[in-house]
Design brief:
Purple Acid Phosphatase, chain A, domain 2, six-stranded mixed β-sheet, 14 strands, 27% strand, globular
Length: 264
């Protein structure tokens, strides 16, 4: 589907504004029975720069709400222009998810002159900041440990704090990490996270038959450019993202994903 606010970026073959709504079933090891069938809307890399009109992102939010997921996650690169700060309230403030809305920041968010102010604006919309934090929540009567890793641009939750949270009486049976970059996959595995959600790599931006993704800003090249990856004990979903710094995508449409969790 092509959203409003379309301009010259709709050159032949360019999918920069051709939003793809993806429904994915993830079979997750160690998923408690109570969370079987839980749905998560995963957004990433919104890149509020002002180059793409607010109407497009209003459309993205409308489609996200239409999914009616239990949980909503934004995995970084949300805003990089002070002129777009009102959009946080006016657009992202309309997002809803009954079991919680969570976010971390990414490298483009660090371009903002006052990152603490950005977090304050996002928190005021009802989004929960997981940057460098861990949080014990309850979904469907089941305890869940949520954590955020914004490395290498901001600190991750400390190992000591994470170890303490995981060793509490009745320690959580399910652990989910939100990270902007999938390069933190090894960190997630080392800390025994069951599920990790990330973005940053934009699916490779351009993908060619046989060759695959062209480029990815990752220490691992295009290995985790976008999609689902499993390296025990962690299942990783990397979003292709909603927008980007460069208005060009080929065979790699922007992605709004609804993830349905099932017991492996």
């Amino acid at each position: 589907m092509i959203g409003p606010g379309v301009d010259g970026r709709r050159s032949p073959g360019n999918e920069f504004l051709r939003l793809e709504i993806c429904h994915k079933t993830l079979r997750v090891s160690n998923l408690p029975q109570e969370l079987d069938g839980l749905t998560i809307t995963h957004l990433s890399d919104l890149h509020f720069t002002g180059d793409i009109g607010q109407a497009y992102f209003d459309y993205v939010v409308d489609e996200a709400n239409r999914l009616q997921s239990d949980v909503l996650v934004i995995s970084g690169d949300i805003i990089e222009s002070t002129s777009c700060e009102p959009w946080l309230r006016e657009t992202l403030g309309r997002l809803h998810a009954p079991l919680g809305k969570y976010y971390v920041l990414g490298n483009h968010d660090k371009r903002m002159p006052d990152v603490a102010h950005v977090r304050k604006l996002l928190n005021a919309t009802g989004l929960e900041d997981l940057g460098g934090r861990c949080l014990q929540v309850e979904w469907r009567g089941c305890p869940v440990l949520l954590a955020g890793n914004e490395r290498p641009w901001f600190p991750a939750v400390s190992d000591d704090l994470l170890t303490q949270a995981m060793s509490l009486p009745g320690a959580t049976p399910f652990r989910m990490l939100i990270s902007h970059s999938p390069d933190q996959f090894r960190w997630a595995r080392r800390h025994s996270f069951d599920l990790m959600l990330a973005g940053h790599n934009h699916g490779g931006q351009m993908r060619f038959p046989l060759f695959g993704p062209l480029v990815s800003p990752s220490l691992y090249g295009t290995r985790y450019s976008g999609g689902v990856y499993y390296e025990p004990p962690t299942l990783l979903h990397v979003s292709r993202g909603i927008s980007g710094e460069h208005p060009l995508r080929w065979n790699c449409a922007p992605e709004l994903a609804q993830l349905k969790l099932e017991r492996a």
